[in-house]
Amino acid sequence: MHALRIFGWSLVITAIGVAGAGVIGSPRDAAIVAILAVLEISLSFDNAVINATILRRMNPFWQKLFLTLGVLIAVFGMRLLFPIIIVALTAHLGPVKVFDLALNDSAQYAEKLGDAHPAIAAFGGIFLFMLFLDFLFDTEREVQWIKKLEEPLRRAGQLDVIPTVIGLIALLVVGEAFSGDHTQQVLTAGVAGLATYLGVRGLGEFFEARGVGAEEDDDSADADDSADAEAAGDSGKSAGTPRSSGPPKLVLATGKAAAFLFLYLEVIDASFSFDGVVGAFAISQNIFVIATGLGIGAMYIRSLTVYLVRRGTLSEYIYLEHGAHYGIGALAIILAISIETEVPEIVTGLVGVAFIGLALVSSILHRRQHAGSDSDDSAGPVRSDEGEGGQGQPREAVSAPL
User: Fold this and answer.
1) How confident is the model at residue 368 (pLDDT cuts 50, 70, 90)?
2) Is position 84 within any domain?
């Protein structure tokens, strides 16, 4: 019942979208909507995991907003209007003209959207690459999947500027060596993507660091705790320990901090959706069919995100977050390659699914290894023991057997 409550609206929207496409358009349009929805879901599993790592830091109000207003932004903003804006900027046409093309000359619109792909790939690629780098160099991350790789990078993260420097170097290399005749377009869009990432993430962290929403933490955490206790059988009773695996600094954001986290989620969604929008034109050139199909997929991804948060899945399968971030790093590389070389959608999807699958298997093996231990041993060291078992032991206990 808990899952049905979360996925209920997704099922309703699916029925309305597919039926509407069949009635207004044709049975073929209905089939295309269903296909696009499945493709969007298969390409975005890692997106759902990443979203969940951010959404669990927000209070229930903002989580609900993510499923309501956020879906409208995802469908109409990121998958319908934003591509029009991108085409307008890269083709030097007015938005009204581009919208007219999308409605009345979809073939030419698809061609111009394809011409804008280098800028789209550069913007989304650098944004996702920075997300991946910040994860690798996060000094506060205790759970390690590939210890020999992640531990040295975690220590190097003491220098906060390292991810930005690496991101800039990567952008310059891609712009000069892998962008062909699109160097200026790639560098401009890449700088815009980097600035967007640093600005949105920085503002969110700024307001979180100032304790915005701290007065509401107890109520918010209790509400989340009760949901998790029903779903996963958690025994935590206080706001300070809502989940056995929650980070020790997990404080539910409200106000400005939550608003910037919400914006951050939307930009992440946009970075994932760009390539899907371009690829969708290989299946259909009707922008409303494309928006409906991708929108249904986006709805399921958002429902899955909330489900992961409510069930505490990231706590149970501790390497899922790692797999998602490695998948994002691979996607960023694929986007860079796709500037000059066409990369099949199936490759993009399988790479993300493969990393998630490997992380899931590693998580299951980790749980089995600790199945015979007390709950304090199996859950406590995963994130933080805050003092009871030594500081060296917990990190060793949660590294994957690779």
Assistant:
1) confident
2) yes
